[in-house]
Request: fold
Amino acid sequence: MSILLKIEELHVTVEGNEIIKGLNLEVKLGEVHAIMGPNGSGKSTLAYTLMGKPGYEITKGKIYFQGEDVAEMEPEERAQKGLFLSFQYPVSIPGVTVASFLMTALQALSEKGNGRYKEIRKNFRKSFKEKMELLKVDPSFANRYLNDGFSGGEKKRMEILQLLTLQPTLAILDETDSGLDIDALKIVSQGVSAYLNPERAVVVITHYQRILNHLKPHFVHILAKGNIIASGGPELALELENKGYKAFGIVEEQRPTA
Reply:
């Protein structure tokens, strides 16, 4: 399998504070990677940096996506190349319906000349209905304003609906399982599983083992103080759940950061 994402000696500063400190990571096509860690360990900072969010300054290191250094690219360009971030706290956009938002996103991506997005856009209506059925979303959902008055579970389903519609090459899921009950977690996990295939990959950021019972990661990484301190298979997440962070030398929860 070819390497999709390669991070080399990454250092990231936010508001003058170094959060990511020499992180290395490789993700290949077809793989699911889970990143776990306490609050303030740098999980969300890593996700935002990968998508190019303003204010997250790379002071050293490289981020290669499909063999190309994307560190200087704008977020829109990264999205056009196939990077996707599911936000932990998605914003609401009153006045813009779910369907029109997704159509606009597809139009913006297809106008960049990517034939893949043009094909997705052509089949939008039929596939959109199928995706809503998969996520057990009422058809009226399409005409609601984006995340406006949505419950926590509806916001998460909206994020996965975007994922299934845009079909990126790499999905970064930032605490997609946060606040979900057992039934909603299962549905969201089914959506992510439907997205996965040998030509795509997922990096899921989470505090909890429970979503990993559904997604079955190939690799689990523990992040602390801005770096990966342990990597392994699914058994690493179980060990963390059973023994806690102290077993990995993390004595106390770190100060929350961006």
